[in-house]
Amino acid sequence: MAKVSMIEREKKRQRLVAKFAAKREALKAIANDQSLPMEERFKARLKLAKLPRNSSPTRLRNRCEVTGRPRAYYRKLKMSRIALRDFASKGEIPGMVKSSW
Q1: Is the per-residue pLDDT at 97 higher than 90?
Q2: What's a Gene Ontology MF term here (predicted)?
Q3: 87 and 43 in one domain?
Q4: What is the mean pLDDT of residues 21-39?
Q5: Residues 68 and 86 reside in one and the same domain
Q6: Are 6 and 68 in contact, with CB atoms under 8 Å apart?
Q7: Are residues 7 and 54 in the same domain?
Q8: What is the pTM of this model?
Q9: Residue range of the domain that includes 52
Q10: Does residue 52 share a domain with residue 5?
């Protein structure tokens, strides 16, 4: 089980990303528009830099929804390999069985 503080920090980042997504997208569109004057694009870049760092989607980390583990994460199932194995062993994932040969 991951530290509760790390899980809560990640939730806070997700809230910030959602909150600033529209503003960040608008500023990026202005900054990348070649038809606008250089000063206006530069001002948009400065405003973009003033936004909180944790509002950037690249700062998000995928975590297991069961344990909060940040590594060995399966995107399709939204859980780590360890939680996946536990659920599969208990028979809680339909169609998944532990292999043996």
Answers
A1: no
A2: structural constituent of ribosome
A3: no
A4: 95
A5: yes
A6: yes
A7: yes
A8: 0.79
A9: 1-60
A10: yes
CA-to-CA distance for 60 and 54, rounded, in angstroms?
8
Alpha helices in the chain (DSSP H): 4-32, 38-50, 81-90
pLDDT tens figures, 57-92: 999 999 999 999 999 999 999 999 999 999 998 989
By CB neighbour count within 10 A (0-12 exposed, 13-18 middle, 19+ buried), where does 80 fall? buried
How many domains, the chain? 2
Residue listed under structure tokens 């899980």: 7
Residues near 10 by beta carbon (within 8 Å), at least 6 away in sequence: 60, 61, 63
Render pLDDT for 5-27 as a digit per residue (tens, 0 to 9). Answer: 999 999 999 999 999 999 999 99
| CB within 8 Å of 13: residues ≥ 6 apart | 54, 59, 60
